[in-house]
Amino acid sequence: MDKQSLTGIELPKMSAETDEATTVKMPAEKSEEVEMPKVAENKTEEKESASTATSQNEGIELPDIVVPEEEKHIPTLEELEAQRKAEEKAEKTIKKENHERTFTRNEEVLYTEKEEKEGNPIVLLVIFAVIVSFVFLLPVINTNLRKIFGLDYSYFENKWSATPTAPQIQQETQKHSFKDSSTRVEIGNLALTNFVTTKNDEKYEIDFTIINEGDESYIYDKKYYIVLYNDDNLIYRALIHSYKPLASKAADELSLPITEFAYKRANGFELVEISETQYPEVEFVGQSDNYDLLTCTYNNDTMEYYFEDNMLIKVKEKYFEEKMESYTYQEDYEDYKGYSYKYNQINGFESTFVETSEDFTMIATGNLNQIQDITMSDLKVYKFFKYRTNSRVVAFEMSALGYTCDNK
User: Fold this and answer.
1) pTM score, two decimals?
2) CA nearest to 199, candidates 207, 187, 190, 188
3) What integer is the mean pLDDT of 140-160?
4) SS3 state of residue 264
């Protein structure tokens, strides 16, 4: 059938739900519109029109209506991650609700679950730094706390105290009281009695009587110490020393320097022997001219000891005294002026003595490698040790002579 034969043909569309027919416009060759009449209202006309249209349109094929499929959405990675987090959150919420439902009215809620939060790396670093700093500073904090609350008497006195770091020293089990004037204590061939602490012109001492019960003279070659206590706290050790030999069966009165704190707080004592091998090692805090420096002070006297590999090489003393501050100024003036003159007579020693109308100063320096041991012994000045004396001997025994040394 050609295109012209279709011009003017009306194709009715049947509807089972309505009685009205839709007018369908078919395009003509010359772009003319063909109006299709409405279906007759009665069913007879409908059937006739349908029959006529069917007969006239036999053999015509209408193209199928193509309905485009709905475009499928491909989710992005961000959307998938958001979906995953939403599902996890929903799962946690369900678990939380189920968990809370398990509690009855009479049961107490012990905890509730919280959402996990991502850790801040800066906060974690700060916390880690604080922990590390605390660990490293713990020994210092512990030491300062002990000092502040009076748990370590060495804060006020010498560095040696009854702490775990103190040397292991064999001591007698019995402590003696200063209140008992009849106390008699024996050690070796010696007997000591009449103990009393005294104060003389800002100098504090412990006085006692010493008796040599042996058959030979005693030259004070043993390291005997009077250990002072405040209750159970060790507060000072005084070295029993003298350059004057004690004859057999003879007695002598000795005075040993102690600290002000020991004078005020000591209420008991005991005698012990401490060998040099038991002295603790020295940890230096200062240096000078490539030497390790140990500085010890007592009232107006300052001693400086210079060590190389823990062996004594050089010693320096500086003594300063003001006239208005001392009751024994003139006596001390004469003594130290004499010391200065004596030091200058020794090869290896140099000394200066300077006086004003108000004070005097004596400075003496000894290069011990140039001074013989016998010469140092002849000086009879205990604070001048021999050449290459170990640092632990100097520090420990100077502390036992009343000096405060700056070693740790």
Assistant:
1) 0.58
2) 207
3) 49
4) helix
